[in-house]
Amino acid sequence: MCGIIGYVGSGRASQIITDGLKRLEYRGYDSVGIAVRTGPGRLEVRKDKGMVEEISTALRFTSIDGNLGLGHTRWATHGAVCKENAHPHADCSGNIILAHNGVIENYSKLRDDLASKGHKFASQTDSEVIAHLIEENAKTQPLVKAFIRSIKQLEGSYAIVAMGASDTEERLFMARRNSPLVIGAGKGEMLCASDIPAMLKYTRTFIPLQEGDIAVLSRHGYKIYADDGSEATRKQITVDWDVEMAQKGGYPHFMLKEITDQKHFINESLASDVSGAWKLIDAHERVDIIAAGTSYHAGIMLSYLLQNSGKVAQAFIASDYPFIAKPDKKTLLLAISQSGETADVLQALRFGRGCKKIAITNVVGSTITTLADCVVFLNAGPEVGVAATKTFTAQLAVIYKMFYGKDKLKELSGLIETMLAHDGEIKAIAQKIAGKENAFFIARGRNVPIAYEGSLKFKEVTYIHSEAYPGGELKHGTLSLITEGVPVVALAPKDETLPKLFGNIREAKARGAFILSITDDDEVKKESDISISLPPGMDPILYPFALIVPLQLLAYHTSVLRGINPDRPRNLAKSVTVE
C-alpha cells in the first residue's frame, strides 16, 4: 500500500529516489511524486497521477540537483486520484514536506483545528494535515521536537518521512506505527523506505523500525527514539536477496507475504470510516447484499450479523441477482468487490434502480464507487496474488466494525500474529493431504462463511476438489463421499455451535475420514487425527478471524508442495471484468 523512499548523503538524491520508486511499483499505486532540497530554504516538488516511468520522464525528476529528498507512490485512500492529492505534501509555507502511508483517523478534527488557526489546505488527503501540524508545532520549538510532538497527536496508522527546507542540517525525520518503514545504512549516506527492495542497489544493511519508533537520519548516521521518547537501539540485519525475492519481502510467494501482512494491514482496515454506511443500514429494514467469489463469503457473514440485529437481509451471488430479486426503493443494496470492477456486481448494482447503494471496495476511483451513495474502503493496499487473502480479512474487519466498533476489535492484529505462528505445523499437515483428490470443510453458524472461504482458497490454488458445508448437511448426501482417508477440515471453536458440530465430526470419523480440526476444545482434539489450536479464552466474536488464517496457510503450503505457483493459479484472473 503506497511506497516511500528517502535519501540523504553525497549522491544525487533525485536519481536514487526515482530508481527506488521504480523498485516499489509492485506495491501498486495511482500517482507518484518527488521532493528534493536544492539548497538551504529551497525545496523542489514534482508530482502527478500516473506511472513512475511516465511521470518521472515528463517532469524530469532526475534533473533536480540536491543531496536530500524523498519520493512516494500513492494508492488513494483519502481523496480522488489527481495531482493535488499526490504526495509529497507541504505545509502553508512550503518549508515542511512529507510522504505518508497509512490512515490518520483523527485527521478531520486536526484539520478543523488547524484551519481555525489560519492553515490553508491544497489537497483532500489526511496526509497533508501532518505537514501543517508540524508547521504549527515548529512555531514554538525546534524542528525535531515539533516532529515528535506532532506524531504524538496522531491517531491511526502511519509510516511518515519528512524534511524541512530551512532545517539547519540535511536530515530526514521518520515515524512508524502499524505501517512498515525501514532504514538503510550506507557509507556516508542513509536511506529509508517502506520496503527493502527500494534500497538494495545502495546497501545490504537495514534497520527495521519497531512500532511507535521515531528516527532522525543524516548522512553520518541515525538516531532512533522509542515510543516513550528514550533513545533506542534496533537490530541491524544484512540481506542477500535478488530483486524479485526482495519485492516479496523475502517470502517465496506474494500469497504468503500477503497472508503474513494481515497482522499489519488489519489496523488500517479498522481505521476505515463505516459511519455513513451504518446510517444507511439503520434507515432500511431490508438489505440485499451482492457479491461474487470471496467477497460473497464476506457478504454471507454480513447477512448473518444483520439478521441477528433484526434486519431482513440476504446475500446474493451477483450474477444471479437480476434473475431472482425484486428490489424496490425501500431496499438497500450493499455491494462488495475487492477491485471495484467486478462485472457481475456492477451489473447487479445497476439493476437496482432507485435503491440507495453502499459499496465496500479496496480501490479508490473504481467503477463501483461511482455507482454507490456511500463507499467503505478496505485500506488493505494492493493484493498481488490472485487468490484473495488479506482483502477477505479486511472485508471481515470493516463489516465487524459496523456492529462492534473498533475497541472490541483492537486485539485482532495480535490474534492474527498468534495464528500465523502455527505456520510450521500447518506445513507439516499440508504434507499429509497434498496427495489427496478431495477435501471437505465443515462448520456451523457464523463459522460457515469461513469454511466456504477456506474451501475456495484450497481448491483455487491446490487444484484439489474441495467442498464446504454447514455440518448438518453432511448426512443429506455428502456422507456418501466420505471414505477412508478423505480429509475433513472441521472449524470447531468452543462456541454455541460446537455440540452439534461435534456430532458431525464423529459421523465423518466413523466413515474413515481424516479429521483436521481447528479448535480450542480438548474433546474435539481427542476425536481428531490432528488439530490446530485456537488461543484459549478468546472472545467468541473473533473466532472467524482466528479460523481463516490457518486455512489460508493450509491452501498455500499444499499448493507449493504440489508444485503449483499459488500466486498465479491456472485459468483465473485477479479482477473478473466479464459477466
Description:
There is one protein chain. With 579 residues, the protein is α/β, with parallel strands linked by helices. It has two domains: 3-247, Aminohydrolase, N-terminal nucleophile (Ntn) domain (Glutamine Phosphoribosylpyrophosphate, subunit 1, domain 1); 410-579, Glucose-6-phosphate isomerase like protein, domain 1 (Rossmann fold), CATH 3.40.50. Helices cover 35% and strands 24% of the residues. An eight-stranded antiparallel sheet has the order 3-2-4-1-10-9-11-15, covered by helices on one side. Strand 2 and strand 3 (42-49) form a beta hairpin. Helix 4 packs across helix 5 (143-152), helix 9 (294-308) packs antiparallel against helix 16 and helix 16 packs parallel to helix 19. The longest helix is centred in the C-terminal third of the chain and has 19 residues, at 543-561. It starts with a strand and ends in an 18-residue tail after the last helix.
